[in-house]
Specification:
Low-confidence stretches: 1-6
Mean pLDDT: 86
Number of domains: 1
Shape: rod-shaped
Distance between the termini: 14 Å
Order of helices and strands: HH
Largest sheet: none
Radius of gyration: 16 Å
Number of strands: 0
Number of helices: 2
Length: 65
């Protein structure tokens, strides 16, 4: 049975990419607020990805009956 994590976006998803672009733009322009927003976008996406992995593992363990 394929794991449902195959359908989960990796941390290099569109949201992560958006964050990287914001961070770089903020760095280039000296806009600390934009840079921090980009870092927050990236961290948020990584957290979502981690939560999805934990949820999938829990489902897998519970369905072993």
């Amino acid at each position: 049975m394929p794991s449902s994590t195959e359908n989960v976006k990796s941390p290099s998803s569109a949201e992560d990419l958006k964050g990287r672009i914001k961070e770089a733009a903020g760095d280039l322009t000296g806009n600390d607020s934009l840079k921090q927003e980009g870092q927050l976008d990236q961290a948020s996406e990584k957290l979502k990805h981690g939560i999805d992995k934990v949820a999938d593992k829990a489902k897998e363990l519970l369905s072993r009956d």
